Amino acid sequence: MRPSRRAPDELRPVSIERAVARYAEGSCLIKFGETHVLVTASLEDKPPPWLRGTGKGWVTAEYAMLPRATHERTRRESSSGKPSGRTQEIQRLVGRSLRAVVDLVRLGEKQIMIDCDVLQADGGTRTASITGAWVALHDCFQWMVGRNMLNVSPLKDHVAAISCGISRGQAVLDLDYAEDSEAQTDANFVITGSGGLVEVQGTAEGAPFSEDQLIDMLALAKGGVAKLVALQKQAVAG
Q1: Which pLDDT value is given to residue 238?
Q2: How far apart are the C-alpha atoms of 162 and 37, rounded to whole Å?
Q3: 22 in a labelled binding site
Q4: 138/122 Cα distance (integer angstroms)
Q5: 75 annotated to a ligand binding site
Q6: φ/ψ bin of 110: left (φ > 0), alpha (ψ from -120 to 50), beta (otherwise)
Q7: In contact, 33 and 13? CB cutoff 8 Å
Q8: Contact (CB, 8 A) for 37 and 128
Q9: CB of 60 within 8 A of CB of 133?
Q10: How confident is the model at residue 63 (pLDDT cuts 50, 70, 90)?
């Protein structure tokens, strides 16, 4: 039995609330169980310097955890002068995941900055960030279309992410902190709405995992992402 008493293929309760930040062009509050992330999308009317004159835009991301998002207060990374290696890795992952489903030429010479701020952490903050970031980006593009800054949205597909793991010898979906901290294997899958793999991150703790276990986790991840994409569609249709 999982610590959360969920079935192996069962997600935590997921909710997506849009338009939660008054000034941002797109925003949402996404909750994966007790993991809560505020995501905003901000339009910058010029691309990064290295893209000027190319006709292409850019989507990038920043990620941060509030000091009391976890059981004990963590120091703000801004006070140390630079983001940690983990923070840099996650924000690059979020950016890569979104760019995989955006037509950067159609966007034109503009940049969208995605900010993912973890209000409360209970495992899966990067997967919640990616899933919520798609919604915030969607709404930012719709804001631009509504103001004739774009003819059509540059989004080509949905993208969402979910964690899987091997816990007590069994493949399980959407690990919370209690499960993640004791899992023999921890993996994250970023998958598009059409089923394309954007990124797979997998790490064994102790014993290696087998090819069969990887296939089991991938099957769970595909099912989980399909449910998340359905929730994204439901959210933006409202």
Answers
A1: 73
A2: 14
A3: no
A4: 26
A5: no
A6: beta
A7: yes
A8: yes
A9: no
A10: very high
The residue assigned the tokens 């631009």 is 144
* pLDDT beyond 90 at 118: yes
12-28 pLDDT, tens digit per residue, is 999 999 999 999 999 99
Written as one string, the DSSP assignment of 104-131 is HHHH-S-EEEEEEEEEE-SS-HHHHHHH
Residue 4 vs residues 30, 173, 174, 190, 199: alpha-carbon distances, Å: 20, 12, 11, 23, 27
Residue 186 has pLDDT above 90, yes or no: yes
Residue 86 marked ligand-binding: yes
Going from the C-alpha of 108 to that of each of 6, 7, 16, 54, 114, the distances in angstroms are: 45, 45, 29, 9, 17
126 known member of a binding site: yes
Quick one: pLDDT at residue 203? Answer: 93
How far apart, in whole angstroms, are the C-alpha atoms of residue 56 and residue 74?
Answer: 38
* Residue-level length of the chain: 238
Let me know: does 141 contact 154? Beta carbons within 8 Å: yes
Looking at residue 173, its pLDDT comes to 97
Residues forming beta bridges with residue 103, ordered by sequence position: none
State both tokens at 31. 């909750």
Q: Are 130 and 199 in contact (CB under 8 A)?
A: no
How far apart CA 216 and CA 84 sit, in angstroms, is 32
